[in-house]
Each structure stands twice: as structure tokens, then as C-alpha cells.
Design goal:
With 305 residues, the chain is an alpha+beta fold. Helices cover 52% and strands 16% of the residues. The chain has helices spanning 4-8, 98-107, 121-140, 143-163, 177-215, 227-275, 277-290; strands at 24-30, 49-64, 67-82, 88-94, 172-173, 296-297.
Amino acid sequence: MPCYLEFLSVFGLSKDARELRFSGFREQTMLKTPSGSMVCSSLGRSGRQFQICYNIKGVTWIEAGRTAQWSIRQAAFHHQFDVDEGTTLWIVTKGTLDIKDRVQHLTGKDGRPEDRAFDTPEQCFNSSLIVHLLNCYWSTENWRWYIQYLEDAIDNETSIAVRGPRGREEAQRIFYPADFQSVQSYQDKINEAIMILEANRSVLESLKNFYEALLQNDEFPLRIVCRQNILSFIKQMDEMIQDSKMQDSRASLLLRITSDRKDLVREKSQSKLKSGGVLYLLAGKLIMHRSYSISRVRQPKEWKN
């Protein structure tokens, strides 16, 4: 499919992650009796086929030397299947080889016999469904842990503003512009996660709907013999879609919490500057000037108005 080139265009060097915003699903179905130019028996082409291309994104924990971080990666897939001959074509585009390794393990000698059987069109079709499930599972498997990482990060940055000391006689933390920038950075990551979860879910729903429609298509010769496999595929897709919705809801809640806490940090910072007095402000500047690693200060009684 020529439109697969559109999916390839998002790969390569980039100064930012704007290409992560692109997602899509394309399909082309040709199940009617083909013209002679579409048939090539020597290549296993009957001319009756369907083609699918889509891209999805996953999140992965990357370790490089002494550093480690979460990284959002994307993958693009092109799949073509001949419904009479069983000829199958896959094109996978990704920055690393982990999906290739998974597919090879799935279809290798250690895989289940039914997943690596390609003797008949029925077996080839069923095996292609398993590969789709593998791809989709990759896009959903680590979001739970990534969102937990963001929850912990927001809590570490803002918990003192919610549960810290409240009295004027107690030591309180002073929040500086760098603190706001850090919280905003995590908020941007949460927004990005929500966007990607929604985009992935849209692609998964489109893929599921395609095979549901194929099951109802009278011109699809495998609709009866492969019916149970297609229904099982649809059920597993529904489970992944539901899991994606749950993680999306969790991230959306975290976004609201982050927004509220950012406002609270801003209010505490502004009220502290207004109520601290000139000497208190001067002490704060002195702390910053000497680069002391002090995050809390106590206002002496004699400074009180």
C-alpha cells in the first residue's frame, strides 16, 4: 500500500517528539474475482487479498550504562494476506529488533504448533491473527508502570505543599521557579501519555472492527472455518482496549491532581513572599546566593510583625 510511506515518514532524527502525535490505520480489501493482471500463481497471488497498515506506540524502560529512563517508541506495520493462497507478507518498521525477536520466538521451534503452522490458508490466517495480538500487546504492556512512575514523581515534587507544615512558626519549604518547571515537565509527559493511549486505542479498535467486518463479508472464503479464531481475536482485542481505557482514566486523574497541586504550590510561594517580611526575603536571597542545599527555613519570632 503506498500509504505505508506516510507511516515511514515519522522515523528518523528529530529535535522533538512531535511525530509521536501521528497515528493511523489504513486498509484495502479486494475479495471479488480479480482481473488477469492481478493473478500470479507462481508467486502465490490469486488477486483476492486484503492489506492493512497501522502504527502504534509503546513505552519501554531503557538502560544505558549508569543511566536509565522511560522512552516512548513507535512501530509501523504493513500486513498483506491472500485469502485463496494463504500467502502472507509482513513489513515491520521499528528502531529496535524486539518485535522481530518476539515474532521469531513465536513462530520458531519453541513456539506453539498452531502459531507456526503455514500449510493451509486457514493456518496462515490464524497465525497472522496471533502476530497482530503480539503487536498490540507490545503497545499496552508497560503503561501501568510508566503512569506509576509519573505518580511517584508528582508526589515527590508536590507532597510537601499538601502535607507539609502549615503554621508560620514551623519550617516550610520555599518553592522556586525551577520547581514549577519540573512539575510542568511532568504534566507535559502526562498529557503526552493520555494522547498516545487514546491514539493506540483508536488503532486497536479499527483493527478489531476490520476483522469483525471480514467475518460478516460473504466474499471472505475463510469466514466459517476461521470463525472461532476471529471471535477469540476480537475478545482479546477488547480486553486490551479495556485495559487501555483504564490506564487512560488513571492518567487523566493524575493530570487533574497535578494541575491542582501546581496551583497550590504557586499559591504557597506567592503567599510566602507576601507574608515573610523584608528580612525573611533577604534571608531567602542569601540562601540562594550561597548555594546552600537547604529546602526549608524557619522564621524567627523576632521577625514577626
